[in-house]
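Appendix B. Chain record.
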Amino acid sequence: MKYEIEGNIVSVQRREIFEGSIMVENGIITDIRKHPINCGGFIIPGFIDSHVHIESSMLTPQEFGQLAVRQGTIAVVTDPHEMANVMGVEGIEFMINNSMDAKIKVYYTIPSCVPATSFDISGGTIASKDVEKLAVSGRFVGLSEVMNVPGVLAGEEEVMLKLAIANRLGLPVDGHAPELSGQKLVDYVGHGICTDHECTTLGEALEKIDVGMKVLIREGSAAYNYEALKSLIATNHGDVMFCSDDLHPDDFISGHINRLVRRSVASGFDLFHVLRVASINPIEHYKLDVGQLRTGDKADFVVVNNLQEFQTEKVYINGVKQYDSVLGENFKNERTSPVCLNNFLHGSVDISLLRKEVHGTIKVISVVQDELLTNIEYYNPKKVHDNLESDLEQDVLKIVYINRYTNGKPQVAFCKGFNLNKGAFASSIAHDSHNIIAIGCSDSELSKAINTIIVHKGGLAVCDSDQVEVLPLPIGGIMSDHSGEIVAADYKRLCNLINKMGCQLRSPFMTLSFMSLVVIPNIKIGESGLFSYADFNWIEE
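Structure tokens predicted for this chain:
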């Protein structure tokens, strides 16, 4: 197939915008010519999400691609460790196979921490021998985020073996090192770990850049780090990339990397620096087979209305038009029904198992607004409780963690920052092992929400008195088999119910899902109760 497309061509490498045409033949740009044009949009390199967990959108890779392409995203670098935690290597294979039908280019990194730590119990395991087999297959562009920072610093054998495999085969190694600093950071980077997406302050980001890391500026549905780090676009544009990490469908429908590009240009940052961060840097870092809008490249580019709004008009990938805004939803919107594989073994939970005695001062998980970090706070009840359900005046609510791969006993603790004044909500999306996690004002409502999740073998549930609403997630207990539009509408409906129950967090389900991720400071809940990141061990109660 041979064709020509006219427009205002934006060359990032040459820092030039000019009128002209692009000649495409068999998916390759064969020539770029300068000449006057009568009309046309602006042709730019497509946007790339440099680190995302597709599963966090609750969509299959195919459905994820349907939404991403409309936002001018042409490729993503994805870590499938959510599905790997549920199904092991079988889950990774599912993701790769399903993404064959995606409209965008999907590049995978090999999960390095499944389960995330030795303290977690997941449905699958990715050992060093699995990493070796996957790495030599040539289907992966890197080793996924190494979250087990203590394991790296202590030289744990399995961690070292995985790092050695990646370094031997020349695969970039992604990091995950919140608040890591000083000599420990130097030692961590010394093992070939070269990116980090957990920076929350400019000082932290600059220190990591100084020791050789690339910083991924994250703006997702629970962590909003763009404002704190955006000045790096001006000072260190060669060392940063954009990523979403975890993005729920209601946010995804309204924007992706294009949203960060638009904000950056509106803030006065150099257009070519912004496009380098949004596109060129991830291509070069991960050695992606994605065109950069040059002669001889793959014909991967986006046509936008202007260089302020960046509204997507057309998207070309490997020379094939994958989206046209004129046709909108009707443009090649083919969908195939995915296989609903799962791993969900827990039976119904009796309300008596949610009881929690409180006889004195206790540690409480305190949510930090718009962050994945949590703080340790202390709660001193006015009286002894043989079963404390909640203290709404102090915003102290019961939080429950249940391993869904066994039929074990729930772990019960308390948290604050959700500000519910009634009801409960629960999810089988609980990073990273994806067990059941729930929060609520009463044991009755908690048990109803939890057991609704169990009946559906995965999903999101909201209970207000006797009324329970649910978004089923039959694929691994973390993804839907429906379209992005349907999932986004159902998800928004559940979030609105939670808002009416008092919680005003921007993304309550996403925030709840990270209450069990023990590799992020400072306190979480897991298999044996509360966990201290500082001590990297369970908290004795």
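Further analysis of this model is presented in Appendix C.
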